[in-house]
Amino acid sequence: MASLIPVTTTRIGEHLPLLDLLPAHAPLSWVRNGEGLVGWGVHATTKVSGRNRFEDARDWWHHQLETFAVANSVHGSGTGPVLFTSFSFDRNEESVLVIPKVVVGQKGSQSWITWIGDSPQPVLPESPAEFSQGTFIFSDGSISTDAWKERVAEAIKRIDSSQVDKVVLARDLVATSTQEIEAIPVLKKLATEYPSTWTFAVDGLVGATPELLLRLSRGMVTSRVLAGTIPKTGDDEKDLALAASLARSSKDLEEHEYAVRSVAEALEPFCSSTNVPESPFVLHLANVMHLATDVTGALIETKQRVDAFSLLKSLHPSAAVCGTPRNIAFDIIDEIEGMNRGRYAGPVGWIDASGDGELGIALRTGQITGKEIRIYAGCGIVAGSNPEKELEESAAKMIPMRSALHA
User: Phosphoprotein among the record's keywords (predicted)?
Assistant: First the structure.
């Protein structure tokens, strides 16, 4: 019988700039306002796809956990061995699971380090690595902007004929650099400019999402729903007026209601009670404002513990990134969007050994491949949508990634 692999978690006293710890190769990140988890080194990795990908991911993770002898003196969510994961939007595309050799976590005044293997505690770098960025040239992605507006018009036609209530259509741009693209300067720029978002990196997918699909901790689940968007002007007085108009917009409120309802219905079978606020609040980011609602619930206590994988299977894809009814909207996306989303708009984040975790929806994101990065944005199309305005909204949603490439 093979001997078990040591996994050690211990406290580290100082408050750490998490992103400064990351090495150049294959960084892993889930950081918001300086708190969260970063990881590096690969202990094990795999890819899953197909109808049972969430169950297959759980089975692989549990198999890996059986090979560990864990010594955890810290306890709590995100301590001990951690799985970073980035699921594809479409089940037929590949999702990526990575168990890093080293994880550093920070929450409030508490910091900790976890490492796999019988080596001594890893020494953390005293100063961040330096990176240079090349010059970027932007070009159309899968389809041109005119073609995308035609797709939006087609989606509106489907909605008007009562086939569907809402369809989310995405588009992409390609940025090509004069040199290999490094994830870390992109992450740092995003974290600086959008500190209230979750800054993530898994297997070349980098971004800063404002949308928390799922936080599961000690039997309590939270999901932050965003739907309904308006660009900011940078003028405080004008933006306050725009925020008020967003909060009253029947088109945006309708889009938001579909998204909230889809999340609440997905969580209900797992919860003894749920809390869904009657009206959304306006979430202010640096470039846009969103209608936002935090849905919370207390899990039902059962013999077979509900974990993050169970909830992901029910939650994804939500109306915020797919539409309503979900199955019809998904088929329309497949038929008319004209783009492979890859892991854009899929769940991204981490899951620990107890099944707790934090996973967002991979929005405001880009996929790095060598000297190329493909950046994405999507818009919820409803009966009151206008193709030109949706194009403007998608362009506003691309600003974070475009700006991060010009650090």
Answer: no
